[in-house]
Amino acid sequence: MTRALAPLVVALLVVSLGGCGSSPTPSFYRLKPDATLTTMSAAVPLNVVVNPVTIPGLVDRPQIVVSLAGNQVSPDEFQRWAEPLKGNIQRTIAGNLAVLLGSDHVGVHGADSSGLPTWRVRVDIMQFDSTLGNMATIDALWTISPPGDTKAIVGHTLAQEPVQGQAYDALVAAHDRALGSVSRDIAAMILKSVPR
Question: For residue 157, is it left (φ>0), alpha (ψ between -120 and 50) or beta?
Fold first, then answer.
């Protein structure tokens, strides 16, 4: 009897293992500078460095975390950030500020070796919420440290951008625009604080 069952068991194993190869493949996303931004004023030769960004522990993971009904959230195993979110946000803000300030001298911490007077920007993301098909929300506290011993300038931006579609790429694009709003507020304060 066992010899008669052996081919059946082998056939079942082959069928069940064949199904394992059809699991979904992950998709990877990255934030990028907001393409709708333009220079806010005549180019000012400013040196700006964006320091490392802090983000909530909830979203400090490879998976994109989406908000569901009530207080429920869900990290999606198959929708992932292509790189650590903190560094991606830091470089995105630096790219936005380069456009807004019309400066070729905007970078991230560690890349500033010019020795020139430098404006330093710190951003603490308090909230980074993602709701598919609805809204991307970024609540950011930011601090600008002008060159020299000048007192730091503290600001806050709450940016909410509608998600234009049900897909993850639309959600990430909404976060691009929300970071554009944060960057616009920072750039406006830098320009307002530049000595005339």
Answer: beta
List the pLDDT tens digit at each of the 196 positions of the chain: 455 555 555 555 444 544 455 678 999 999 999 999 999 876 667 899 999 999 999 999 999 999 998 889 999 999 999 999 999 999 999 999 999 999 888 989 876 656 678 999 999 999 999 999 999 999 999 999 999 877 999 999 999 999 999 999 999 999 999 999 999 999 999 999 887 7
Tallying the residues shown for the chain, one arrives at 196
As assigned by CATH, the class of the 43-193 domain is alpha beta
Cα-based distances in Å from 31 to 21, 85, 160: 30, 8, 16
Residue 120: name the closest of 196, 22, 31, 52 by CA.
52
Single-letter amino acid, residue 133: G
Contact between residue 79 and residue 64 where contact means Cβ atoms under 8 Å apart: yes
The domain locations on the chain are: 43-193
Q: What is the CA radius of gyration of the chain?
A: 23
Phi, psi of 87 (to 5 degrees): -65, -35
Q: Which amino acid is at 67?
A: S
Strands (E), 30-187: 48-50, 63-67, 73-81, 106-108, 119-131, 135-145, 153-162
What Å distances lie between residue 124 and 77, 90, 190, CA to CA?
26, 10, 17
